[in-house]
Amino acid sequence: MIYQGKQKIWSDYQKDIPDDHWFYARSCIRQNFFPASEKYFLEITKGLLGKDICDNEHHTTCGGIAYHSDTIPQETAMTIVARQFAIMTECGYENLVVSCITSFGNYNETIETWREFPELEAKIRENLWKACRREFKIPKYVAHASDLIYKFRNEIAAKAVNRLVDRNTGEPLRVVEHIGCHYSKMFPHKGFGGAEYPCVLSGMVESWGGRVIDYPERRHCCGYGFRQYHVKANRGYCVSNTYKKFESMEPFHPDMIITNCPGCPYFLDRWQYVISEQTGKTYGQNGYGIPVLTYEELAGLMLGYDPWDLGLQTHQVAVEPLLDKIGVKYDPAAKYLGVNKEDIMRPELPQFLKCH
Amino acid sequence: MRPNVVIIGGGIAGMEAAKQLLYLGYSPILIEKTARLGGHVADWYRLFPDMTPASEVIENLKKDIQNANVFLETGVQFINRLRDTYNVMLTNGVSINCHAILFATGYDLFDARKKEEYGYGVYNHVVTNRDLELWFGGNKDVRIPERPKSVGFVHCVGSRDMKAGNMQCSKVCCMTAIKQAIEIKEKFPESEVYCFYMDLRLFGKKYEDFYISAQRDHGVHFIRGRVSEVGENIDGTLQVKAEDTLNGKPLKVSLDMLVLMAGMLCGEKTRELADGVRMDVDTDGFFKSRDNIYNVTESSRNGIFFAGACTGTKTVPETVSEARAAVLSIHNYLQQK
């Protein structure tokens, strides 16, 4: 691997994103999959870094899953997007920061389509007005939430209490980064680092002390793929793609995986259980899996937030081996205590995949 | 005194034109931006179809143009049109008044780094057709393994590629890939060699023979399909994903080395120079001839002529023939004045 070659590509795909004043578009599924990720995005950007981020309860799903599953027409999806823009406009913001990769792709695709076909934009404006009497301005800037964490990665590193370093050996942890397909495969110039060697997550990992693993199937889809997973008969194809990725990364012995998409961390995490049940194979050390974290969860760990407040107990793969390597302090007894110390119950243990 | 003729570009087109102009009694002035003559051909080791050493071609041409005025490491700052002549200002401060200018500026090799998915400049064992020729010619290259067990050739890198902004066929890459595949098999008979192609454009003399020989005598595998992406395995070998469109299946293969057949582009700097004298550029990005059938070597400007790959992709024999034709056009033009 020629590192300078990648740096050259990274320098070609940089974007100058605004420093402050963002309207936050949440994800419809991330809050269920990773319940604390969005909370801690706001905690870090608003609370810790003092940024102005508007979190408004009136926006809805972007319609991306339905659009990509061919269950709603593009004009409907665009009208939903237009409504999100209208709420942003009403709140007095011009910069949109998006939690979900699918939404990020969806917003960019909509804006680019309108740029190419202004008559379609006029039609959507009319649709929106007829439907809910709203008007909107197109955002001046659309960023993915991981772009903001990437932008502030060094500030986060400066405030961090933990680093991505094995406390026993002093070696950087080996980290696999997995970028959601719709981050830059649709519009390479919209993502840090372009489509082939995106650096939005690897930049965080390196700033926080870890070492990024480059493995052959790095750019392969996580396996989710709307038309795979959402059609039940196709789920075998979905898991086989994830299996392909794990087989490819296995020789590099990764300590963890970091992701920036709603679907990828979910499937990379949950399918490890399915693969272990189907084949008896696990990919972590000593029968464990490879922990899969969102970038907000990892940023939270670096900043010293409690792993159970970050929602890491909702993962299928046990995170304790990773916490022990980094040296994160945690209370094993508090793992399944939710808000107000309420017992959230324990999951059934898998047959092969070792869990705490 | 015979009128001056300025030739811009010291590749084989410019050298052959200088040679022919000398034969006709003119005083050609050859301008070459690099430190040596021969252009891209000087980087090549052997030329198809007879595996002629490229150095032999260049050295013979050099001998033939010993009496020409040659400026090496010299560019053209600007060209001014005067009443019946042109004033060519060189970067070394010399100003030349001439009656005719021959553009023999050739082509630029496509920068293979732009096809990021192939990993040129990122992965250790990805090289271009030019890199391989230089290595055949004796240059050291750490990217080329000592004894490769498997080698892939990717055709049409930056050619016939809308995303790369280069729609035309580079014409020589198919044949070059087959030639280089055979040369690899001759050096490493135990290796497996794969050519990933869209379709094979083997139009020239003996090209088809090469293709048949590559399969029959050397066992080169030809796979019809594009490479989608390249990755690096833990042992440093390359994982190449492609589609085999004849089998209708995707395929994945580990290779020790990948050779990218970088295509031809009209040089960016050549175009800037051409802007100064308002020369037209054709839809393929190369210079526009007066017409593409009968007056390929003439521009739409009186006294400005073309030879070689500045008007489109060409083989070496085509380039040499065109240089001769251009000289005849110049001669006729000057005779009429």
Number of strands of chain A: 8
Looking across the biggest beta sheet of chain A, what order are the strands in? Answer: 2-1-3-4
Major beta sheet summary of chain A: 4 strands, parallel
CATH architecture of the largest domain in chain B: 3-Layer(bba) Sandwich
Rounded average pLDDT of chain A: 95
- The 3D shape of chain B can be described as elongated
SSE pattern of chain A:
HEHHEHHEHHEHHEHHEHHEHEHH
N- and C-termini, Cα separation of chain A: 37 Å
Name of the CATH superfamily of the largest domain in chain B: FAD/NAD(P)-binding domain
Helix content of chain A: 40-55%
Instruction: Enumerate how many helices of chain A there are, as a single number.
Output: 16
Which percent range describes the beta-strand content of chain A?
5-15%
Explain what you see.
The complex is a heterodimer of chains A (356) and B (337). In chain A, 44% of the residues lie in helices and 8% in strands. Chain A contains 16 helices and 8 strands. A 4-stranded parallel β-sheet of chain A has the order 2-1-3-4, sandwiched between helices. Chain A has a 4-stranded parallel β-sheet with strand order 6-5-7-8, with helices on both faces. The radius of gyration of chain A is 20 Å and the shape is globular. The two termini of chain A are 37 Å apart. Chain B folds into 2 domains: 4-107 and 266-335, FAD/NAD(P)-binding domain, CATH 3.50.50; 110-264, 3-Layer(bba) Sandwich (FAD/NAD(P)-binding domain), CATH 3.50.50. In chain B, 26% of the residues lie in helices and 27% in strands. Chain B contains 7 helices and 20 strands. Chain B has helices spanning 12-23, 54-64, 129-136, 173-187, 207-216, 268-276, 316-336, and strands spanning 4-8, 27-31, 46-47, 52-53, 69-71, 76-81, 86-90, 95-98, 100-103, 108-109, 126-128, 150-157, 192-197, 221-224, 227-232, 238-244, 249-255, 257-262, 264-265, 304-306. Chain B starts with a strand and ends with a helix. The interface between A and B is medium-sized, with 18 and 15 residues.
